[in-house]
């Protein structure tokens, strides 16, 4: 089965034989009592990769953002301002904040003016704005207008909290026409050429770009230090496992040595897919050749039929819906990895060519 549903973008799988051995999966103690071996080294490497002073590890982004928002509400009166197009993890974490009695408001997806208006209203209420957004939206294939969000937050002493799961390991510093992903895989701040500041905190899972199931929070030293001291997850939940930490460190070393080559290969596959399917009447959303490529196909029934046609042909893709900014249209989505080859794209095109009509209006 030819698979386009895996988010292991760089193709890193970490078989056990590729990692140093371990004596136990876990120490049986929370991180507040004892850090798993390698935790501090990995956190430091991830902070430097993203351009931050400090970082700390968490089991997942769900643990991370729930924990961070609960801690922030205890520091000072605040209001969470949520970009409505954000991935469900941020919505769930914001719901936890709402359940604890803290106000939460949404604003239009990637709309800087709407964000500024929401912040002005929150400041009049005497609460500090905590802005929540994704660094990259796969639903509409658009990066966050990060520099503009950061300026608006800084103007009002807000905290910008980014979920950078999609971008970490893929996007990096110095993007240009020849290399739109940039270099190094350091994520959205690097890609936007922004310096870290006390008003920005970035959380991300390593399960996509780096293939390791754990999450990292990076930010200013004071914020991360204080968060670690007040974290509930570090007291009441198991920390990332020893194998996951070792897989992440292995992924970072591999990315340093070979990552830009893998990202270049990944880019070629995304460009080839966009061009090849455009020749068959399917136009990709957005303009960035990101590893997640979605093609609008009209009504949901058309997406389901094309999905089944591909499945019958031994190809797995995803019938999806775009985010609100893309009109929530029915889409056919392909997740690309560095392991895909041009022949795989040709096979998709040949299978879709046999499905008529390709689009419904």
What would you say this structure looks like, in words?
The longest helix has 37 residues, at 242-278. Strands 2-10-9-8-5-3-4 form a seven-stranded mixed beta sheet, sandwiched between helices. The chain has a three-stranded antiparallel beta sheet with strand order 11-14-13, covered by helices on one side. Helices cover 39% and strands 17% of the residues. The chain is an alpha/beta fold. Helix 1 runs parallel beside helix 9 and helix 9 crosses helix 11. It has eleven helices and 14 strands. Mean pLDDT is 94; it is low at 357-361. It folds into two domains: 16-254, Aspartate Aminotransferase, domain 2, CATH 3.40.640; 258-353, Aspartate Aminotransferase, domain 1, CATH 3.90.1150.10.
CATH architecture field of the largest domain: 3-Layer(aba) Sandwich
Low-confidence stretches: 357-361
User: Roughly what percent helix?
Assistant: 25-40%
Radius of gyration using CA atoms only: 21 Å
What would you give as the CATH superfamily of the largest domain?
Type I PLP-dependent aspartate aminotransferase-like (Major domain)
The largest pleated sheet is described as: 7 strands, mixed
CATH topology name of the largest domain = Aspartate Aminotransferase, domain 2
**Category by helix and strand content:** alpha/beta
Under CATH at level 1, the class of the largest domain stands as: Alpha Beta
Number of domains: 2
Mean pLDDT metric: 94
Q: What is the strand tally?
A: 14
The outline comes out as: globular
The H-and-E topology, N to C, reads as EHEHEHEHEEEHEHEEHHHEHEEEH
What percent of residues are in strands? 15-25%
Please work out how many helical segments DSSP would assign.
11
N-end to C-end Cα span: 31 Å
Cross-sheet strand order for the largest sheet: 2-10-9-8-5-3-4
